[in-house]
Amino acid sequence: MPWVLWVPAALALALVVLPVLGLVLRTDLTGLPALLTAPVARNALELSLLTATLSTLCCVLLGVPLAVVLARARFRGVRLVRSVVLLPLVLPPVVGGLALLYLLGRNGFLGYLLDVVAGVRVPFTTAAVVVAQTFVAMPFLVVSLEGALRGAGDRYERVAATLGARPWTVFRRVTVPLLLPALGSGTVLSFARALGEFGATITFAGSLEGVTRTLPLEVYAQAESDVDSAVALSLLLVVVAVLVVVVARPRVLDGGRGRGERAWG
Question: Which phi and psi angles does 122 have, rounded to 5°?
């Protein structure tokens, strides 16, 4: 490895680590247990974990078919569709929240229909948190899966089709196994992104304690009145995010890397 890479690599690492270190140094360790076990902190953490789990499940159920269609389908306008799907990656989250509000709010065309036909109001509910998190997190899963499918090619699927396998059988027996490593990493990324979502949530779901106030929103609320509590909750969010990435990191990635190393060795 060229030695010149160490300098920018060290700077990049410092850019990530030093702010977190500053947060740790600012934390009052003596009062940390009391701050983290307060009812508002527990409620915000439980709500965050619940909504992030539900939104990740929605990302998988909706994002996997979408990624397969984008990677395998051939139709005019596929690039435009792909750009629209990836739009939440570049949009400010607040803009995404406004878009959801004007779609599903009482004055939005879909929200008006839901209200009149079924008496359902989505904004400023826990369901709105899940919708907002899914909106911002699903592109991470789609990007991972589509890239994996394009990199793997479609030769195995073509062979299975020529042997008489039906499309659903090809998808279940060939496409899904090809997706598993990327599905694991994409799911972790989606969960982590949903866990840290703030802008779209506060715009579309509001900040109602016990209903829509997730951990990032609780940090923002506490920062206006109790800085020590906000710092402690921020540190808790960092720890939870690190645990999610470390513990939930797909084993298949390590296994695939080991097989590749043995093959080259």
Answer: -85, -45
